[in-house]
Every structure is written in structure tokens, then in C-alpha cells.
């Protein structure tokens, strides 16, 4: 586990964008590469930076760590964010691996979406966000199927429901996250720094982000 503090959010976003681009470039020199990213409000500037990187994007599979079960017309759609901020400019030619399909419930689409993901595992570069409640991806404390999603034998993809999550979620499970070659957790501000420090002392059931902390680099700026 390591912790990296940056002098400003701008420095964090630019620096981490370059780190991830370097990891993808190294993987591409040997074969294909997979980038998995969060939605939410924090990663937009890293997406902007990555979209300008000179990479062999058609050989990069890009997916989300998790999705809120809403259509792309919703401002809460992570797929929409991805299309607007990451899969543009030079990265427009990257290959999007979907985490959403227009069925009423996520359960109806789980198998099909998982089938699309499996050929692109393990993830080369995994960028994770974290909530102040210490959830990561859609592994929320108190979620209905959290224990199954944290288990070593969890399927690749699961549908979860949690009060704090709002709509139903679909998420990569802990074993898939842990198998990523490079794991980066992106957090900003004092509240999330405090949550990260608490997570270091808690179990993944209490603080789901703890499941990946041992292998992760945490990147923080005030
Ligand atoms: O769809 C989501 O909600 C995410 O993927 C989620 O895990 C996110 O990374 C955290 O909730 C942090 O979100 P913020 O960056 O908005 O604080």
C-alpha cells in the first residue's frame, strides 16, 4: 500500500493521468490493455488529461468499475460521463466495454455484460474513487449482497442495492478489482482523507475500500 500527496488537485489529475497513460503504454508494447474507471464527480479532469494522450487507443478496452442502473439520458449515468469526458479526442477510438443495457433491472443483463468483460481481464490500470462512507466501485457498506461481492469466489459482475446508492447498481466485484495490475485510488479533500485513514483500521465489510488497499496506491490532494 502506498500514499501519495500532491501539492494541488491540478497536479494530482495531471500526474495520475500520466502515470496511467504510462502503464497502458507499457502493456500495449506487449499486447492489449484494459483501463477501468469510476464515475462520480471527481475523475473528470483525469479523463480530460487521458483523452489527449497518444496511445494506440483502438487496442485499449475501457470500462467502468460500476454503473448506476439509469439510461444515458440521465445525468447520473456513468456511461454518459465516460462518453463525454474520456472517449473523446484521441481516446475516441478506444473500445468501450459496456456496463449498462436498457433492461428494467440489472439482473436481466448481468450475464451478457459479464461475457463482454471477461475477455478483457485482468485490468491493466484500475482507477477507483471512494465515498466518504468508504465505498468503492458500488461496494457499499450495508449493501444487500456485499458479503458475496467481497468473497474470493464472487462472479465478475454483480448487481447490488444499498440505501446510500440511490438506484440499483452493477459493479465489478472485489476479486476482479484485486487482480488488476495497477490499482489507483483517487481522493480529494479532508473528508475523504479522514475516511481513508479510518478504512485502514477497518474490515472490508465495514469499509469496502479496505479490500483493495493493500495493493493500491492512494492519490490525494487537498
Ligand atoms: O458511480 C459511482 O458512484 C462510483 O463509481 C463511485 O464508486 C464513486 O467513485 C464514489 O462514489 C466517489 O464519488 P465522487 O467522486 O462523486 O465523490
UniProtKB/TrEMBL annotation:
GO MF term (any one): 6-phosphogluconolactonase activity
Domain Glucosamine/galactosamine-6-phosphate isomerase: 8-220
Pfam families cross-referenced by the UniProt entry: Glucosamine_iso
Gene3D superfamilies: 3.40.50.1360
EC class: hydrolase
Enzyme Commission no: 3.1.1.31
Pathway the protein acts in: Carbohydrate degradation; pentose phosphate pathway; D-ribulose 5-phosphate from D-glucose 6-phosphate (oxidative stage): step 2/3
Family to which this protein belongs: Belongs to the glucosamine/galactosamine-6-phosphate isomerase family. 6-phosphogluconolactonase subfamily.
Protein's name according to its UniProt entry: 6-phosphogluconolactonase
Organism: Stagnihabitans tardus
Gene that encodes the chain: pgl
Amino acid at each position: 500500500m502506498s500514499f501519495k500527496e500532491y501539492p494541488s488537485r491540478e497536479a494530482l489529475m495531471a500526474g495520475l493521468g500520466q502515470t496511467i497513460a504510462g502503464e497502458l503504454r507499457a502493456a500495449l508494447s506487449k499486447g492489449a490493455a484494459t483501463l477501468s474507471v469510476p464515475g462520480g464527480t471527481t475523475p473528470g479532469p483525469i479523463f480530460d488529461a487521458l483523452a489527449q494522450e497518444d496511445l494506440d487507443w483502438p487496442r485499449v478496452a475501457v470500462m467502468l468499475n460500476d454503473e448506476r442502473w439509469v439510461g444515458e439520458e440521465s445525468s447520473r449515468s456513468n456511461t454518459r460521463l465516460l462518453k463525454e469526458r474520456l472517449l473523446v479526442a484521441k481516446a475516441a477510438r478506444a473500445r468501450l466495454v459496456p456496463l449498462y443495457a436498457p433492461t428494467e433491472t440489472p439482473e436481466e443483463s448481468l450475464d451478457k455484460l459479464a461475457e463482454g468483460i471477461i475477455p478483457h481481464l485482468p485490468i491493466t490500470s484500475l482507477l477507483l474513487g471512494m465515498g466518504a462512507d468508504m465505498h468503492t466501485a458500488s461496494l457499499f457498506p450495508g449493501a444487500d449482497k456485499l458479503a458475496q461481492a467481497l468473497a474470493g469466489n464472487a462472479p465478475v459482475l454483480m448487481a447490488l442495492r444499498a440505501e446510500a446508492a440511490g438506484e440499483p447498481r452493477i459493479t465489478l466485484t472485489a476479486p476482479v478489482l484485486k487482480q488488476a495490475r495497477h490499482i489507483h485510488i483517487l481522493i480529494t479533500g479532508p473528508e475523504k482523507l479522514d475516511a481513508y485513514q479510518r478504512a485502514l483500521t477497518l474490515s472490508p465489510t465495514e469499509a469496502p475500500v479496505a479490500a483493495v488497499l493493500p495493493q493500491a496506491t492512494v492519490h490525494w490532494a487537498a
